């Protein structure tokens, strides 16, 4: 009896001691784990469940099995949204990378005032899409009062429809995104450029290499990990594009700027089909997951400069 | 070399101008008395200067409300994210406990999933909670973020162990070590976390678009968006844009070096 008692106190003592030792872990990590379970883990699992339901915002939810998934396969508008998003990426990724690299090279060359230039190019990154779209909508209004049209008139070019043209609207949106994002691409490249040792260039210069050769033989290949990283994060970003399509064109004209996320928003909160919109969310997830896998597979192979 | 360096300023200044012009259009547009921009931009200089656009916006009482809403749903998560990034970063960097790595990488993996996946389940959850059209869905899920925890963890892992050991010999516990040593040493990285949180919360459009349904609960992004679609008045739109832009601009001016560092940090490990 007393022996048992003894071991009992020592056990609870142990617990208390253990708690004291790890108090900071229990006090902060446990609530955050609960928060994580409620606001991240559960919704992610729940959203998979929703895809099997007919779930109007108002009214009863009803289990319909794979109907939403099957509906997706034959929904031409959904495929158009995917195609639009791919098209958007094509207009957006390479120019963003090229402009980011170009700006990084220029800033790396002209050291004086580089902080100011970096600041200027980075400014759109921190500005909201709403503010930039506000300006953009006046710049690319497809009428006489559109500011770019005013400018084009001076060169004798006819009024362009821009945001009201189904051929041009997506390109204008890509232009807005390039303007907004290339500042952060520039920072990645700038950091990459600074890690290339100056000796490489000196050695090549002694061998008589010109600037063009220096760029293609040293700079460009040594930046390979950065090219890859930037390509992946800009493509992930481009698949999530929503704000400008919502603000400037509402997915139009003629669905030409209906992107995946815009279509998801529209299906969920205008057509009130939450189950179907969840399918679209999963399609988006699969695409982005695929891109991340590629990144994980190849980004590990880093070039060692040292 | 010197000569070629000078030439780089030609394209640099040229592109910089292209970047500045939209912001100049906003600034000038906001003080000119024009409903629709005059066809020749050079005539803008002869336009009448007015503060009418601003008074119009500010008299529209909702605009001030939108700014206040944005402030509430930004400032609370910013401080919470800074605090939790610091303390969780410390826990994951310096403490040993069971399942530590599994917990960390599970959190990493789940929170890195595209946020659009969360919109619909959260909408249903928050409807049940009765949270729609309150600040709660815009604050509560945002009180910590994995990226901030990751930053601080990476940073604290590089701090020398001696610091901690010396303090422990003097009888300091975790809390003393955290508040007296780790927290002060990590100020720059915590500031980075805060600036990122500020910009992403202030600028967010999709989340508040879904979780707020009445005008007086809109943050300034949603409010301004509704203004842009109905006004069609250049001066007023530019004034509204400028007012909602000023807070991000000020944060940007003060914390620019943290942004640049943070962007580089997030990309290059």
UniProtKB/TrEMBL annotation, chain A:
Highest taxon in the source lineage: Bacteria
Membrane topology: Multi-pass membrane protein
Domain ABC transmembrane type-1: 82-295
Name of this protein: ABC transporter permease
Matches recorded under InterPro entries: ABC_transporter_permease (IPR051393), MetI-like (IPR000515), MetI-like_sf (IPR035906)
Cited SUPFAM superfamilies: MetI-like
Organism: Fictibacillus arsenicus
UniProt subcellular location: Cell membrane
GO cellular component terms given for this protein: plasma membrane
Principal location: membrane
From TrEMBL, chain B:
Primary residence: membrane
Pfam families, sorted: BPD_transp_1 (PF00528)
Keyword Nucleus in record: no
Subcellular localization(s) per the UniProt record: Cell membrane
ABC transmembrane type-1 domain span: 67-255
GO cellular component, one term: plasma membrane
Protein keywords: Cell membrane, Membrane, Transmembrane, Transmembrane helix, Transport
Domain of life: Bacteria
GO biological process, one term: transmembrane transport
Residue ranges the record marks as coiled coil: none
Protein family (similarity comment): Belongs to the binding-protein-dependent transport system permease family.
Membrane topology, from the record: Multi-pass membrane protein
Residue intervals passing through the bilayer: 12-32, 66-90, 102-124, 136-156, 177-199, 238-260
Name of the protein described by the UniProt record: Sugar ABC transporter permease
SUPFAM superfamilies named in the record: MetI-like
């Amino acid at each position: 009896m007393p022996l048992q008692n003894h071991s009992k106190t020592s056990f609870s003592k142990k617990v208390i001691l253990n708690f004291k030792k790890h108090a900071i872990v229990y006090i902060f990590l446990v609530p955050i784990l609960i928060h994580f379970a409620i606001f991240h883990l559960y919704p992610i699992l729940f959203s998979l469940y929703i895809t099997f339901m007919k779930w109007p915002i108002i009214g009863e939810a009803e289990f319909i099995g794979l109907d939403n998934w099957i509906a997706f396969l034959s929904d031409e508008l959904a495929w158009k949204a995917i195609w639009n998003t791919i098209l958007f990426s094509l207009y957006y990724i390479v120019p963003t990378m090229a402009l980011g690299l170009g700006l990084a090279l220029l800033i790396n060359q002209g050291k004086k005032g580089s902080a100011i230039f970096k600041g200027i190019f980075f400014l759109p990154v921190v500005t909201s899409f709403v503010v930039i779209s506000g300006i953009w909508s006046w710049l690319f209004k497809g009428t006489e009062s559109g500011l770019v049209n005013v400018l084009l008139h001076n060169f004798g070019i006819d009024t362009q429809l821009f945001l009201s043209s189904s051929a041009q609207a997506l390109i204008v949106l890509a232009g807005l995104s390039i303007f907004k994002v290339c500042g952060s691409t520039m920072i990645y490249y700038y950091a990459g450029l600074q890690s290339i040792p100056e000796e490489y260039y000196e050695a090549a210069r002694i061998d008589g290499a010109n600037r063009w050769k220096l760029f293609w033989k040293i700079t460009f290949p040594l930046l390979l990990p950065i090219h890859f990283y930037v390509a992946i994060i800009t493509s992930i970003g481009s698949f999530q594009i929503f704000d400008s399509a919502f603000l400037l064109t509402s997915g139009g004209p003629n669905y030409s700027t209906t992107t995946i996320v815009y279509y998801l928003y529209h299906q969920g909160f205008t057509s009130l089909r939450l189950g179907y919109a969840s399918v679209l969310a999963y399609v988006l997830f699969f695409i982005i997951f695929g891109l991340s896998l590629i990144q994980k597979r190849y980004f590990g192979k880093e070039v060692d400069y040292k | 070399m010197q000569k070629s360096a000078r030439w780089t300023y030609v394209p640099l200044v040229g592109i910089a101008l292209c970047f500045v012009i939209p912001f100049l259009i906003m600034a000038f547009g906001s003080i000119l008395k024009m409903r629709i921009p005059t066809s020749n931009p050079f005539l803008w200089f002869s336009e009448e200067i007015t503060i009418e656009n601003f008074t119009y916006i500010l008299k529209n009482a909702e605009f001030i409300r939108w700014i206040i809403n944005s402030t509430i749903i930004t400032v609370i998560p910013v401080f919470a994210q800074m605090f939790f990034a610091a303390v969780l970063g410390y826990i994951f960097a310096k403490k040993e406990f069971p399942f530590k790595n599994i917990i960390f990488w599970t959190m990493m993996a789940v929170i890195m999933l595209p946020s659009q996946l969360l919109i619909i389940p959260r909408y249903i959850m928050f409807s049940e909670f009765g949270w729609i059209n309150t600040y709660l869905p815009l604050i509560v899920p945002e009180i910590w973020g994995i990226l901030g925890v990751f930053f601080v963890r990476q940073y604290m892992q590089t701090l020398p162990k001696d610091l901690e050991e010396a303090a422990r010999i003097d009888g300091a516990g975790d809390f003393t070590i955290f508040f007296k040593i780790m927290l002060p040493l990590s100020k720059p990285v915590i500031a980075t976390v805060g600036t990122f949180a500020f910009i992403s919360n202030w600028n967010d459009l999709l989340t508040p678009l879904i979780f707020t349904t009445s005008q007086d609960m809109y943050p300034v992004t949603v409010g301004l968006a509704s203004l842009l679609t109905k006004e069609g008045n250049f001066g007023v739109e530019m004034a509204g844009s400028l007012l909602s832009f000023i807070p991000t601009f000020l944060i940007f001016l003060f914390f620019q070096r943290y942004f640049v560092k943070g962007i580089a940090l997030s990309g290059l490990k």
